[in-house]
Amino acid sequence: MRIRAFEILVAAGLVLLFTTAVLLLTGAPPLEAFALLVRGSFGSVSKLARVLTVWVPLTLCACGLIYTFRIGLWNIGVEGQVILGAVGATWALRAGAGHLPPGVLLALAMAAGVLLGAGWSLAAGVLRTRGGVNEIFAGLGLNFVAQGIVLWLIFGPWKRPGVASMSGTVPFPPGLWLPNFSWGRLSPVALGCAVAALALTAWLLGRTRVGLFLRAVGGNPRAAHLLGLPPERYLLLAMALAGGMAGLAGGIQVTAVYHRLIPAISSNYGYLALLVTMLAGFRLGPVAPIALFFAGLNVGSVQLPMALQLDSSLSGVIQGASVLAVLLAHGWDVRRARRQA
Amino acid sequence: MHIVLDDIHKRYGRVHANRGVSLEVRAGTIHGVLGENGAGKSTLMRILAGYTRPTSGRILLDGDEVRWRAPAEAVARGVGMLYQDPMDFLAMTALENYALGRRWVPPRELRRDLEARAAELGFTVHPEMPLERLTVGERQQLELLRLLSLGVRVLILDEPTTGISGVQRETLFAALRCLADEGRSVLLVSHKLEDVEALCDEITVLRQGAVSGRAERPFRTRELLEMMFGEPPAVPRKVGSTPGAPIVSFRNAWATGGRSGLRRCSVTIREGEVVGLAGVEGAGQNVFLRLAAGLNRPYRGAVEVCGAPVRAYRWLRQQGVAFLPAGRLEEGLVRGLTVLDHFALGRSRIPFLDPWRGARDRAEEGIRQYRIRGRPETPVEALSGGNQQRVLLALLPERPRLLLLESPTRGLDLESAHWVWEQLLAHKARGATIVFSSPELDEILMVAERVLVFHDGALVADVAAAETSVAELGSAIAGRAAPPPPSPDVSVTAVETP
């Protein structure tokens, strides 16, 4: 799906109109609310650091989703893959604390996150290729299982001494935290991971056989088979890549952001990344800016309740409306073009 | 109804599909629109039927100019079209499809109406059968009845004889004759000379988007061919050879698939043979080809290819076995990928290398050698059907051992078909074995050395092409003749052609 600049303009106009209408209905001053959103996200260096902290997992998940969309899979299970990545990292840190130097242990924790995320994704992939289960249902089911596993771990084997609580496991000692920049709460390693994922994805999809084959299998699995490709292998590869990146996002949430496992460790970033990817027209180019826009909305809306007695879910309204508006504008454009043909 | 098309132009971007076509059809006549693939026949008819809008030009019905905004408007004014790929709903029953495009009528009444109309034209209908279980010919008959019941007085048929049986063709032609005699106008689009010659009162020939000639009964074949192609196409010559060791052998193989599956099939094909598979659509030929290609497995019996029990298709492909599917965009090519991308697929072996490096040269070479009208950057779905077929042929391995081809010239005009066979027979001259299916007996007799005839899932005849005739094959296909079925234990060897 190729979204044209014109469509983006139309969509942006629609979103602005719709959001203004919603704000007017709730009795809030729209201009002030928009100003707060902007100041709350990009108003200062420390706020920018917070936005980028959200941008990292969104970008990682969205990069992974590009692979699965490219081959025609709806990897709804990305949410669960983030969660399992977080579980993997937590497990590695708990098991290795005190035995290994912090640097090595952190690297291992990230690797464990990647592996568990990829494994969880492959489970959905194998259900699809071997069991004939649609990946949407497999992924959705596994998301609930993943959430269950986290709650069980927090209230069971990994519970805090004394009483287990929704605030999660015991925080790790600061020696096992990924270090931050001096100017804000943002980890350079996390930022590097997201940028590396963008670069890797651009290279794999644009310059290698993997990218071409994913497109071929996604476009027509039967033709790809007859042309000598193994479609199942590439389906699983796409799932593993997507799950690995989502798992890395989960690992980063544990090691760089929360420093422990919490029930809402994924913060719904997996689902949000699905919206980012759709808004990007399933192409890699627009992923980074759109993820930044979404991250800005998420961070900027945090202070809305205090300043305007508005719920911070306004960011969700704008994000959802953006996707719908772009799809709508694109649909109009396609219909107009078809009528002219 | 009297139809005039006046100076119709249609441009698709840089492609000029119709260049000032004018055409007149008198009421009560059958008018043929003849031309090779890509001559602009379908475009012109879609314009008349309201499916496509012309870039310029006028359409006059009984002297009134009309401008369609949708096909439904054309149908309301009495102009209906049977498209080459039937536009119907496979998951719905025949009766449900029949009910489309009209106001609600009680199903019982509608069913009586359908059956009465079918009886009038000698059609067979199965009102409660889902469409996916009907043959192309039966679906075509249903669509024809639906258009007639909507009051259509101008009937356009786009390549109606593609994919239907000989009997269905006879029924269809008799029905069209009858409809014309009742005063309706019929436009028959075809690239098959025998169709238009058999049926039409008048013929307009299109070539490269423009009218290249008109003719009235009686037609002279040579003149028509010259209008179509400029010069009559050359017939490819058979290459004789001595068959070698067995390369494909079926031993009492049973399999599902197609309309009737494959039953108790025993046969041996030897290296260097060219074998044609005849039969009505779905009688077992394509199941046979897919078994040999490792795309389907027998549930009983054995299939050996290249001296080993048949393995996965990918393994066979590495042994030099290639399978060409009949559905070009369904199974052969990937929509959205360019010609260049297709050449890049399956060539490089290392996952992280640039697959396009070196592919451009091969793509340009293939485009030149196979005379594909398109560029390396053209997406395959933008190519015409004939050019898609050429891409598929260009993608075949350079030195194949065994070619398994499903209707390799489907939808190609005579000249392109002959040209394709020249390329394929060149593979044979280098030692390849060719097994192909085709709905055209003439084509089978033209290139094959040996013919296997399938009827209702069984191999009913195995004859040397030099010693048989269209009539003999035709009756075997229909299951009328009863030649001794090949015994399950003795493999039948080819008869050498000199």
Structure description:
The complex is a heterodimer of chains A (341) and B (498). Chain A has 341 residues and is an all-alpha fold. Chain A folds into 2 domains: 1-28 and 310-341; 49-308, ABC transporter involved in vitamin B12 uptake, BtuC, CATH 1.10.3470. In chain A, 74% of the residues lie in helices and 0% in strands. Chain A contains 14 helices and no strands. In chain A, helix 4 runs parallel beside helix 6 (135-155), helix 5 (102-131) runs antiparallel to helix 6 and helix 8 crosses helix 10. The longest helix of chain A is centred in the middle third of the chain and has 30 residues, at 102-131. Chain A starts with a helix and ends with a helix. The model of chain A has no long low-confidence stretch (mean pLDDT 90). With 498 residues, chain B is of the alpha/beta class. Chain B has 3 domains: 3-229, Rossmann fold (3-Layer(aba) Sandwich), CATH 3.40.50.300; 233-320 and 399-498, 3-Layer(aba) Sandwich (Rossmann fold); 334-396, no CATH class. Chain B is 32% helix and 24% strand. Chain B is built from 17 helices and 20 strands. In chain B, the strands form 4 sheets. In chain B, strands 6-7-8-3-9-10 form a 6-stranded mixed β-sheet, sandwiched between helices. In chain B, strand 1 and strand 2 (15-25) form a beta hairpin. In chain B, helix 4 (107-121) crosses helix 5. The radius of gyration of chain B is 24 Å and the shape is globular. Mean pLDDT of chain B is 85; it is low at 482-498. Chains A and B meet through helix 8 and helix 9 of A and helix 10, helix 11 and helix 12 of B.
CATH topology of the largest domain in chain B: Rossmann fold
Uncertain spans of chain A: none
According to CATH, the homologous superfamily of the largest domain in chain B is P-loop containing nucleotide triphosphate hydrolases
Mean pLDDT score of chain B:
85
How many domains of chain B? The number is 3
Mean pLDDT metric of chain A: 90
Number of helices of chain B: 17
Query: What's the tally of helices of chain A?
Result: 14
**Topology, number of strands of chain A:** 0
Fraction of helical residues of chain A = over 70%
Lateral strand order in the biggest sheet of chain B: 6-7-8-3-9-10
Distance between the termini of chain B: 56 Å
Q: Low-confidence parts of chain B, pLDDT < 50 over ≥5 residues?
A: 482-498
Could you describe the largest sheet of chain A, including whether it forms a barrel?
none
In CATH's first tier, which class of the largest domain in chain A applies?
Mainly Alpha
Instruction: Label the CATH architecture of the largest domain in chain B.
Output: 3-Layer(aba) Sandwich
* CATH fold-level name of the largest domain in chain A: ABC transporter involved in vitamin B12 uptake, BtuC
